[in-house]
Amino acid sequence: MFFEVVHQTGLSHMSYIIGGRGKAVVIDPRRDCEIYIDIARRHDARIIHIFETHRNEDYLSGSVDLARFTGAEIYHGRRLPFKFGNPVRDGEVFHAGSGKIIVLETPGHTDESISLAFADTAFSTEPIAVFTGDTIFVGGTGRTDFYPERAEEMAGMLYDSITEKLLALGNGVIVHPAHSAGSLCGAGIAAREFSTIGYERMHNPVLRASREQFIRQKLDEQHYKPPYFQRMHALNLQGRTELGRVPKPSPMNPDEFAAAIQDGMYVLDVRSAEAYGGASIPGSQAMPQQLIGRYAGWHCPYDRAIGLVAENETQAGEAVVLLLRMGYDSVKGCLAGSMNAWEKSGREFQSIPGIHIYDVLRRIEAGEEFLVLDVRTKAEFDRQHLPNAVNMYVGTIQQHVHELPENMPLVTFCGSGRRAMVAASILKQHGFSDVRDCLGSASALEAVEGRTITVG
Amino acid sequence: MFFEVVHQTGLSHMSYIIGGRGKAVVIDPRRDCEIYIDIARRHDARIIHIFETHRNEDYLSGSVDLARFTGAEIYHGRRLPFKFGNPVRDGEVFHAGSGKIIVLETPGHTDESISLAFADTAFSTEPIAVFTGDTIFVGGTGRTDFYPERAEEMAGMLYDSITEKLLALGNGVIVHPAHSAGSLCGAGIAAREFSTIGYERMHNPVLRASREQFIRQKLDEQHYKPPYFQRMHALNLQGRTELGRVPKPSPMNPDEFAAAIQDGMYVLDVRSAEAYGGASIPGSQAMPQQLIGRYAGWHCPYDRAIGLVAENETQAGEAVVLLLRMGYDSVKGCLAGSMNAWEKSGREFQSIPGIHIYDVLRRIEAGEEFLVLDVRTKAEFDRQHLPNAVNMYVGTIQQHVHELPENMPLVTFCGSGRRAMVAASILKQHGFSDVRDCLGSASALEAVEGRTITVG
Amino acid sequence: MFFEVVHQTGLSHMSYIIGGRGKAVVIDPRRDCEIYIDIARRHDARIIHIFETHRNEDYLSGSVDLARFTGAEIYHGRRLPFKFGNPVRDGEVFHAGSGKIIVLETPGHTDESISLAFADTAFSTEPIAVFTGDTIFVGGTGRTDFYPERAEEMAGMLYDSITEKLLALGNGVIVHPAHSAGSLCGAGIAAREFSTIGYERMHNPVLRASREQFIRQKLDEQHYKPPYFQRMHALNLQGRTELGRVPKPSPMNPDEFAAAIQDGMYVLDVRSAEAYGGASIPGSQAMPQQLIGRYAGWHCPYDRAIGLVAENETQAGEAVVLLLRMGYDSVKGCLAGSMNAWEKSGREFQSIPGIHIYDVLRRIEAGEEFLVLDVRTKAEFDRQHLPNAVNMYVGTIQQHVHELPENMPLVTFCGSGRRAMVAASILKQHGFSDVRDCLGSASALEAVEGRTITVG
Amino acid sequence: MFFEVVHQTGLSHMSYIIGGRGKAVVIDPRRDCEIYIDIARRHDARIIHIFETHRNEDYLSGSVDLARFTGAEIYHGRRLPFKFGNPVRDGEVFHAGSGKIIVLETPGHTDESISLAFADTAFSTEPIAVFTGDTIFVGGTGRTDFYPERAEEMAGMLYDSITEKLLALGNGVIVHPAHSAGSLCGAGIAAREFSTIGYERMHNPVLRASREQFIRQKLDEQHYKPPYFQRMHALNLQGRTELGRVPKPSPMNPDEFAAAIQDGMYVLDVRSAEAYGGASIPGSQAMPQQLIGRYAGWHCPYDRAIGLVAENETQAGEAVVLLLRMGYDSVKGCLAGSMNAWEKSGREFQSIPGIHIYDVLRRIEAGEEFLVLDVRTKAEFDRQHLPNAVNMYVGTIQQHVHELPENMPLVTFCGSGRRAMVAASILKQHGFSDVRDCLGSASALEAVEGRTITVG
After folding, report:
1. What predicted TM-score, i.e. pTM, was given to this entire model?
2. Contact (CB<8Å) C343/B416
3. What is the complex's ipTM, to 2 decimals?
């Protein structure tokens, strides 16, 4: 019996393949799905079942392609009218080798959410593991705010699903959730990716609450919902996710790149915050590679060609994969020779200087006129922030940028200086000329002060 | 400036990518064309031109996919009505970076054959290299028998193309032909893949002949034309060669494999001759992996699903690639667990014992009643063969197998024992029960005798 | 936090790397240890602790090299005088990032065996997983027969270790043992590689026994101990396991290979049983690649150069790795061109024909004079065997081969026909000429009869 | 027959492997030599001869390791007392398969330089190719200034070697030199890597000169000699180049990295110039990855531990390889999490702002007080430079930095802005606070002006 976790790093997503005796099952495949076939073949196995624990909102599913390439069948919860695959209901059973999968309907995150208990029939028909999708995470639970008007109902349903279906499986059952820390789909998730029902029962803070407390807590959670979720919803429901071959960005020289910009190409710069700060193309969007999964979906348009600025072809190729997982299939190419080529062409470039937290504090103390724009979530901001800071979430800054005073010197601020660069590039797009990024931001502040910041 | 040779091993084919300053040119791309994009990207370059030196007959072109993936333009000789790409004529010039490509019409192998002279304009407009397609090879020349009724005319045209267009380029020009030793597309090709006009002028035996001698020699050449060439012709002319993703064979367990055989699946066994001889599925076709390029096209049908028997998933995956290059897109899967799984399932297997050349000679000497079936080409056979040998070319054996006496013990024989196994498996299909493969065959004979064989 | 299992396939061994926040811990590293460094670097982490759950007997440890390459410290149980690393005692605690490792002394398999409980201090100081070494396996337990005179004592110690130390951790703790199914180091191990304390408590048959029953069961277990264990013991204790670079076998042509055989080189043929049966070098040892981990250690000498026969360079390279894990560092090279080259050189080859179970049964029924040599373990043999079968375990056949009647036709038999080929090649070495391998063996028999065999 | 070029990119070095029929020859192997073994094995061949065309001065040879790993013999010119390998003399002949290597003593670059003519005896004993080492390059010739007092003699010897030995081989011979464009070992080298004797005779500007003109030209060439050449000389002569395993840099967190700096660790920052300019560790040395081969040898010490700052582990690993080729074996580790981790730790960072050529010109025009420090070679500088520019070669800037006026605002300038960043980081080390890098530099100037610069 083989078992592997396949990650979608930027999205903190985990999919799974499990199999034996020549058969395999995949749970929540990512869009670039060749990897599951490779793993299965390495174990001399054929993928026969594909399960989607729910209609995902944060990435495009690879189920359609994977089924097409392998002949496997797709299954999802019955409470949504999927245009493809087969609906399953509570208690349905599937087999693959000695593995047995039992469907558990576990609504709450969404109505049609299912979990999948897994038994090794060579030993017992009782489950040894459960794939929990977005119901229970290690240390957390799935968000329940997708239907704002039904928020309380959804939270209650999730509580019931967890307690009646999942905890009931017994302490010795291993938990395999769909997300790890950093996901937009839940709260309180641990950095650790493995757990058991027994451990979660004891140590998952949410699960130690009563039903009412649980609902209250869920209602209190603050989640952001990037606009691209809408598109994922629709495409995943219709199964319009075909990809086939993973494309590779064409190198474009500065002339070609500049001409494409003229024609409306959107420039996404996936280099590090430091490199972007050093020199970047005016009007471009900073999006350090690690942030693509979380923040590209807030800013990138679906109806424009995308041009990448990356350190090299490898990074550009990786960015293309991260983007297509979110449905961005329109990458036209990447800047050959990176920024150095652009600079050599004599074209203009912009800089966004970094500023050390010491200097920020000094300027505050000196009463200099400038604004700290804190682009973290409201929750992070509320926990602690600099005295003269204004909060504008990095995801929604475009809508609020006009609220800022013109000509004001700005310092962007976040947890580390990265999101701050995403925001800084947007400020530049809107004509702000004196913009600096507090590299290190809240982390640096904590480090240098040896304490958290006093709220102004 | 970068330059790389991309091989299609089994077909002894060489394609080329050359480029610099962000642009690249590909000559005669193979069907699984991702590799050219990878090489170009490694050099920060975009493929802008694709040349086909002629409508290939031995493999499917990757031009259509490569153009689709990169936006490059396709060019071929103007004397065939291609359904795609652009016709070019003698003297036309193309640029890519500092590279300059000059089209030379060099008919003879086919009417629309072109060669491509390459100059590095940073130094000179005179060429430093020439891509000769199937006109001149290292040590040999392209075959001229594709239009039997025009054989003499074609040979004469080839002579003129070589002497007037290619040799005229000057001794210091490097020669990059489309094939190396082992190809079906020419004669006398060297194992070495690099040469110059100067070297060929001196050492290519064919080129030291007069026009008449040359024509005479070409007319005397004996070439076989596998039936699959017909299909390559048609598809390459129409551009119906799209592939997209390279498929991977699904592992099928013995039950599934046997059921598919019942449903008409053709079984191609790509393991070594020794493994096939040790145990194989009755009715299957032996086709050791190294021979796929040369002999699959004689035997494999295009209208049946193909099931592979390979040592492991890796070998099965490689076989799929070799087959799709010849247009076999219908591989259904491969036997999971290889022959061992089949044997464990209790199903029948066949064996084809090897026989040492000593034993063959001994049996001949002892006057035992048996037949040596020599499956080499007529030319190889004529050069030397065993006393009681009958010649039936491995490619056409199916048509002649009924000429063999029933119940006759048979020993198949070739250059090494490999083609002999291809033939032996066919004899088994036709009901011959006492079939042995002379492993080592002519090579072993030469080795043990320390001399060539006296023709009986 | 990242976690990966690293397998030594042929040995059914599992090692682990776990880490986070820039630090990593490795448990029971294999000798070719570069992979741990690669995994750690992929997670921006440095390996700081290496634990050996016990002095391994079935493979050479990579701890010394891994410590040398990374600066990590090595730890093992204190009840053996290791020449390197640091002894640890029950209750000692180590940290790496938020991970906490608690040492549990769990003697029984060996005296100095330890287990390692793992806690994620970001959540709790209570463990979420335990690395159990060779104490408890999924569905089984470690063997306790290494000190025959203390067998009962060891079994009792193991029982106490399991019940008092491991089961006491609680049902929700994940179990990570050092071996999976097929290992020589335990009994009853499941094909599945993951479990929990709770699941094992319920479904591990051994753990449901009383202390006395457990001891009785352990004493009844029949284990073989390949001679190479002795060498692993000694080298692992002294830390004489340095490897450095993983060597690659040099291709040797038939002349060179034959000359080396003359000079005493031992020939190990790692091709499939079918290929070996089809043609092999007289005097060579059949050892299909999958069997190297289990059976090479019975037969291969440590004091002779080893020459490999493999299908190709890739397989030869893999065999070298499998062999060096068992301390065979003297591979001189591999036969270039595989058996085909040997055959072409005119040298002699031998064949071992396969025989179908039908034919074996028919010959038995017809009363033909021949012997079925069943080379499975005594336990397998006792469960069921063919009427005229004699049992000689494949590992110890060399010592007993002289007991066989001369000139007797022999059919080797095992579970699938693979071990039977290992044995058949040994019979050939000892001059038996009429040797056949029942390909499929017991599996085929079961399949064709639809039932198990009646003991004669 | 197979043939492959193996590049050492940063050093513009080309080594070669050529072989067939199971044997292979390597010419001028790089230090990380595993790749030659891999190529040879892919072709079922064993490396039997290793040639060094001369004692290399710009990289450490891999001959010793390669011979150790394969059993091959090493050969070099007889006019230097190598401590290993075998001296060869003009006319000596070696064989490998059908390949024949003829030694040509071709002094000039060094006294013991040899070239290697290569013939394919299957066709002719006359050569088809020649490996020219550092005598003749594509479009250029080797430098002859290593013995300043014998410069004229060396140049004359080179002329004689080229005309009497190399050109004499005939126009149709392919030229394989040891270096391509960008090497420090020659002048005028083309970007193209392939040529022929015939082409060079016609188009290599140097070769169209008379003996006297040639000597004059060579004497006029200006070459820099990085201090690390001395060390390469010595180690390559003694054969003290053993490497074994290619090491991988350990990730170090900011605390560990900072502590190591305290202990004297030298910080080499291999990120792009833009990233370095955005934020870097005070006191570190900028060395964008592409420049390591050319400029690390001017600045990096051999007697200090080296700590890398790279974008990620992959880039750090590549930098380690580039450094070990130049004998830097003391890389201690790399900064885990790159600069972002450093910033988050609250430690200080420095910035080097980029400045556009427009702004430089504007400032010059406005008569602002500042200095353009042009760090290109004297030859580049002489060809054209900005009005107020001072030339200090990037390689030797450390010795001259004290000549600069204190407190003067500085703009570093080169061909593209990259070397300018190497220099800028050195200026920072020496206390200059107002340092900017003219990103794009001379290339940008040329692009924006549409013309070359008037010398001030």
Report:
1. 0.96
2. yes
3. 0.95
